[in-house]
Amino acid sequence: MTETIPVGHPLAVRADHILDELAACNITHVVTVPDFVQMSVHAKLREGYLPSVDVIPTSTEDEAVVIAAALHLGGANPVVIIQNQGLYACVNNLRAIGLDCGLPIFMMIGQFGREESNFGHDPAKSQRRIVRMLEPLLDTLEIPIFRLERPSDIGNVRRAYETSREKSWPTALVIGVPTAWT
């Protein structure tokens, strides 16, 4: 039997490994505005990699946050998959629903626009504002940050999910490198 070689940057985390972690968290729904950085994750979901998980595409990140909150209130375990600029667009809903209401909005946020020379390094040193300002904004909102920068960070998927549930609070798993195609 031959092993599939991941296609992507050497630091890229395999999409199937990310989805296996989401399955271990008993994720029931993926609510998303598709993210370029996590495109291989979306492709695996479309292929039926997690057949028991419902994928809900939305038009805006505001919708994604509200739908995830409603799913949680109904007893489901959703994850919101968006990119950094989408987070900037939905800050008010995230504040009102996640922070003010104390709901566990578990987000996977792709670092869209991050230059390859910054992969594996401090995103605060990026030359691109869209990348540099993500973590300071999350800190301002008091949202715990977990990074997925390389394969050895895979445990942060579960840590981010569990922290969100334990604290009944939003958490952010920041995907720093485009996920690998397998």
Explain the layout of strands and helices.
Blueprint: H1 15-24, E1 29-32, H2 39-46, E2 54-57, H3 61-73, E3 78-83, H4 84-89, H5 91-100, E4 106-110, H6 129-132, H7 134-140, E5 145-148, H8 155-167, E6 171-175
Parallel strand pairs: 1-2, 1-3, 3-4, 4-6, 5-6
Helix pairs in contact: 1-2, 3-5
What is the radius of gyration computed over CA atoms, rounded to a whole number of angstroms?
A: 15 Å
Helix share, percent: 25-40%
Annotated CATH homologous superfamily? Thiamin diphosphate (ThDP)-binding fold, Pyr/PP domains
Determine the number of helices (DSSP H or I, runs of at least 4 residues). 8
CATH topology: Rossmann fold
Query: Helix/strand/pairing class, anyone?
Result: alpha/beta
Succession of helices and strands? HEHEHEHHEHHEHE
Which consecutive residue ranges, at least 5 long each, have pLDDT under 50?
A: none
Q: What strand line-up does the widest sheet have?
A: 2-1-3-4-6-5
Instruction: Name the CATH class.
Output: Alpha Beta
CATH architecture: 3-Layer(aba) Sandwich
The coarse silhouette is: globular
Strand content: 15-25%
Instruction: Give the biggest beta sheet.
Output: 6 strands, parallel
Describe what is shown at a glance:
The chain is an alpha/beta fold and 182 residues long. The chain has helices at residues 15-24, 39-46, 61-73, 84-89, 91-100, 129-132, 134-140, 155-167; strands at 29-32, 54-57, 78-83, 106-110, 145-148, 171-175. Helix 1 (15-24) crosses helix 2 (39-46).
Question: How would you characterize this protein structure?
Answer:
With 182 residues, the chain is α/β, with parallel strands linked by helices. The chain has a single domain, classed as Thiamin diphosphate (ThDP)-binding fold, Pyr/PP domains (Rossmann fold, 3-Layer(aba) Sandwich), CATH 3.40.50.970. Helix content is 39%, strand content 15%. The chain has eight helices and six strands, in the order αβαβαβααβααβαβ. The chain has helices at 15-24, 39-46, 61-73, 84-89, 91-100, 129-132, 134-140, 155-167; strands at residues 29-32, 54-57, 78-83, 106-110, 145-148, 171-175. A six-stranded parallel β-sheet has the order 2-1-3-4-6-5, sandwiched between helices. Strand 5, helix 8 (155-167) and strand 6 form a beta-alpha-beta unit. Helix 1 (15-24) packs across helix 2 and helix 3 (61-73) runs parallel beside helix 5 (91-100). The mean pLDDT is 95.
